[in-house]
Design brief:
Blueprint (H helix, E strand, L loop, with lengths): L6 E4 L9 H13 L4 E5 L8 H10 L3 E8 L10 H21 L3 E9 L9 H21 L2 E5 L12 H11 L4 E6 H7 L5 H6 L3 E6 L14 H10 L6 E3 L9 H6 L10 H19 L5 H9 L2
This protein binds manganese (II) ion.
Manganese (II) ion (MN) binds next to loops.
């Protein structure tokens, strides 16, 4: 169906504990709140029974994506060969589990550690990451999985902070099943606006996270969602749009420390999730008339 984007929600909106039972709860809540897609964290593939959760997702009629960020001791951009090797094993395990749970996309900070670096990236680190991701993309291709490179702010990686960085990495990887993943929370910190990066990514944009500037209620911060959605419609983006929000009311363990989730932006997830879905639907409706106009212009200009 053209003209619509699948709306998704990150599983950790629902729960701070990650196990099979909580994953099944998150699946039920996702469907009840009217979303079509759930994003599962794959930081620890062994934390859930992927067969069982995959079945729950399929029987709820949902689509699924997976995401992860590498730890510092398993970083494919490291100068230490042992650390890089652990990083590749970490990615490989996350990829196999993502495929087993039924996901067609594995995304996140796949290219470096997720966390604050105290050094600038190096050329060698960039090259190591590109080479490891090329090997991962080849295995992903066999599994029918696309890889997303999530563009994150400077406090969560030193390697890919802007759309331009991600596009350069995609070029260096040189495989068709690697896409750019924009997130408004990070764009608000690193990009000049919410429109340019979408245009720059063009048809290499494969996934979008919508998160508010303070990661709380959608529409209550400074992110210019109206500009983002106008541009997504204009370029004809048809991929998923996934709501991401974190609150200290959910005890999300180590991840809370990594993402600096110190504040309680909300208490109960259900109303937050429903309000976000309604907000996203209203943005899609308001921009439906613009859909594809940019791609038509690009096509006719190329003739
Ligand atoms: Mn994100």
């Amino acid at each position: 169906m053209s003209g619509t984007n699948m709306l998704g929600i990150h599983a950790l909106v629902w729960t701070g504990e990650w196990n099979t039972q909580q994953a099944e709860l998150a699946v039920r809540q996702t469907a009840e709140a009217g979303y079509a897609l759930i994003e599962l964290p794959m930081l620890d593939p062994g934390a859930i029974d992927v067969q069982r959760v995959g079945k729950a997702i399929a029987s709820a009629g949902l689509s699924v994506t997976c995401s992860l960020g590498l730890p510092f001791d398993a970083d494919i951009s490291s100068s230490n060969a042992d650390v890089r090797e652990r990083g590749e094993a970490f990615l490989r395990a996350g990829l196999e589990a993502s495929s087993d749970v039924g996901a067609a996309l594995l995304t996140g900070v796949l290219y470096s550690a997720l966390g604050k670096y105290t050094n600038a990236p190096t050329k060698a680190g960039w090259k190591s990451a590109a080479e490891a991701l090329t090997r991962l993309a080849d295995r992903a291709q066999e599994l029918g999985v696309t890889l997303g490179l999530e563009i994150v702010n400077r406090y969560e990686s030193n390697l890919i902070n802007t759309a331009a960085d991600a596009l350069r990495m995609i070029d260096d990887i040189g495989r068709p099943n690697v896409v750019a993943h924009l997130d408004t929370y990070h764009m608000n910190i690193e990009e000049g606006d919410f429109s340019g990066p979408v245009v720059r990514c063009g048809d290499r944009l494969g996934y979008v996270h919508v998160g508010e500037s303070h990661r709380g209620h959608l529409g209550s911060g400074v992110v210019d969602f109206s500009s983002l959605f106008r541009t997504l419609a204009y370029v004809g983006y048809s991929g998923p749009i996934t709501f991401e929000s974190f609150s200290s009311s959910q005890a999300i363990g180590e991840l809370a420390g990594t993402l600096a989730v110190w504040r309680g932006t909300w208490d109960e997830p259900f109303p937050v999730a429903v309000a976000a879905r309604q907000y996203l639907e209203s943005l899609l409706a308001a921009t439906a008339g613009l859909r594809g106009q940019g791609s038509l212009k690009v096509a006719s200009a190329g003739r």
